[in-house]
Fold this sequence. Notes:
By secondary structure, the protein is of the alpha/beta class. It has helices at residues 18-29, 42-54, 69-83, 106-130, 154-174, 201-206, 216-227; strands at residues 9-12, 33-38, 59-63, 88-91, 136-140, 180-186, 237-241. The chain has a single domain (9-241), classed as Rossmann fold, CATH 3.40.50.720. 42% of the residues lie in helices and 15% in strands. The protein is globular, with a radius of gyration of 17 Å. Keywords: Oxidoreductase. Pfam families: adh_short_C2.
Amino acid sequence: MSNEIENKVALVTGGSRGIGAAVAVRLAEAGADVAFTYRSNEEAAAKVVATIEETGRRALAIKADGADAAAVVAAVNEAAATLGRLDILVNNAAAFIVAPVDRLGTGELEQTIALNIRAPFLASQAAAGHMKDGGRIVSVGSNVAEHVPFPGFSLYAMSKSALVGMAKGLARDLGPRGITVNVVHPGPTDTELNPADGEMAATFAGFTALNRYATPEEIASVIVHLAGPGGAYVTGTAISVDGGFSA
């Protein structure tokens, strides 16, 4: 595997499982040292650390709650201080709250805003302060920001759509420094929380043109491409990696 981001340092939020873990490992395979945050599952975090270290790269697991604004900023600063620099940020950690609009309270609203909007903004702001020219910021959105096929997704879709506006604004702010800011919208992806053999999996897969779920590695490959030289002229945009879900 080519080392297109050799000796870069990356931070992935929510990197102990699913898409986040796949991104963390793929970044290491591409040549980066990788820090990642996790909320509580120390066993899962240890496994990701071990996998990264098997590639010959350094790994750092940081326990941090994305709903805690101070913890988000502290995690960014710890990654940069411990690994010596910060070149790449992947905002992946998120809350997934789905319910009819009349059953959503202020608690669900505040949790979603804190994790899905405030945390990515604060992490991006803090990371930009550490990045040299040519850094990369990629946020993990969702296909439902482009197409909502069922009721109950209003809160989640709103929060993921906000990432697109953030990317467009930050792209202008950081563009003079060559720092790119983008969003990747995954479609149905085979993870622990949304398995490809789950109860609704056949229905969700049927909305895609390819009639299947993505693997986490397929999503990770696009994110890592944006984090490398291939992403140098891509900024302020959202890329759907959804098997044609939004077609």
